[in-house]
Amino acid sequence: MQMKNKNYKIYINKINENWIVDRLKKEFVTGNKHLVTNNLRKADLIWIIAPWNWRTIKKKYLISKKVICTIHHIDELKFIDEKEEFLERENYIDFYHVPSLVTKHQLEKITQKKVIYIPFWIDSKKWFIKENKLELREKYNIESDSFVIGSFQRDSEGSNLSVPKLSKGPDRLIEMINYFNKNKQNLRVLLTGKRRNYVIAELEKLGIKYSYYEMATPLQMNDFYNLLDLYIVSSRFEGGPFAIYESAITKTPIISTNVGIASEILAKESIYEFNSYLNARPNVEEAFKNVQKFTRESLLPKYVEEFINL
């Protein structure tokens, strides 16, 4: 790849939230150490990968450097309240990056600036298929005959952990789980992640069995996908979600609302409108085939090529 300037440097803003974006930043840096700098003065391009932390960058650098900002998703339920912040930040943005076509279409309605679409990636070497579902269930004390539904993302809003984060659709998730509980024998829900208070409280009200691992390791997460009968994405608005990538690469049955990357990886029959979720059907082979286009090896070079030529 021919660079305009062999000393070209990218500064990526700090996150430090122990969240998926930290992982993406780390993986990008690991693969492009020659390209990334922690010194803003030496940077040719500032990549605001975490737009909520944009104020941590001094304005003199935002003014003097080229700036690209990633917009992961736009929560249309909240945008009226967040519009002022968006417009203030836009004063310093030269280009936008989005990881899904859904977000691209949303963003192009509210900005005249160039929007670059490159999906985020999955490291296919860290996720793999395991055939021994019964052994995995025994390992985690889950009955072998259970119908196991997975949900691995937070559901509570802000500091009030009893309030559902509506963009993630936990209220919808509970309704769907309750339906399956009435129509499947021995249902169990497997939860991971922080801020699962709302869903846990609702499951307990309904008397539905669940297992909860707040901080699962990467190896445990791989196990969890492989022991599921179904993963449900019930979000109203979403950037990834990475559960779609992870389900697809591990051949985990999954159904999802049409958010984020869903339509680019999942088969049409696996995507549902909320009032028609009963018609949704997982298609693991189609998802597995499509997710191969979203691997780290295939997508990281596209970021480098696009960004150094801005």
Describe this structure in words.
By secondary structure, the protein is α/β, with parallel strands linked by helices. It has two domains: 10-121 and 296-308; 133-294, Glycogen Phosphorylase B (Rossmann fold, 3-Layer(aba) Sandwich). It is built from twelve helices and 13 strands. The strands form three sheets. A six-stranded parallel beta sheet has the order 10-9-6-11-12-13, with helices on both faces. It has a five-stranded parallel beta sheet with strand order 1-2-3-4-5. A two-stranded antiparallel ribbon has the order 7-8. The longest helix is centred in the middle third of the chain and has 14 residues, at 170-183. The protein is globular, with a radius of gyration of 20 Å. The mean pLDDT is 92.
Mean pLDDT equals 92
Q: Please report the total strand number as a whole number.
A: 13
Tell me the major beta sheet: 6 strands, parallel
| N-to-C series of helices and strands | EHEHEHEHEHEEEHEHEHEHEHEHH
Could you list some keywords that capture this structure?
alpha/beta, 6-stranded parallel β-sheet, 310 residues, 2 domains, single chain, 12 helices, Rossmann fold
Give a short synopsis of this structure.
By secondary structure, this protein is an alpha/beta fold. It is 36% helix and 17% strand.
Please give the structural blueprint:
Elements: E1 10-12, H1 20-31, E2 45-48, H2 59-64, E3 66-70, H3 79-90, E4 95-98, H4 101-107, E5 115-117, H5 133-139, E6 147-151, E7 156-157, E8 160-164, H6 170-183, E9 187-192, H7 197-206, E10 209-213, H8 218-227, E11 230-233, H9 242-249, E12 254-257, H10 262-265, E13 271-272, H11 284-291, H12 296-308
Parallel strand pairs: 1-2, 2-3, 3-4, 4-5, 6-9, 6-11, 9-10, 11-12, 12-13
Antiparallel strand pairs: 7-8
Helix pairs in contact: 5-8, 6-7, 9-11
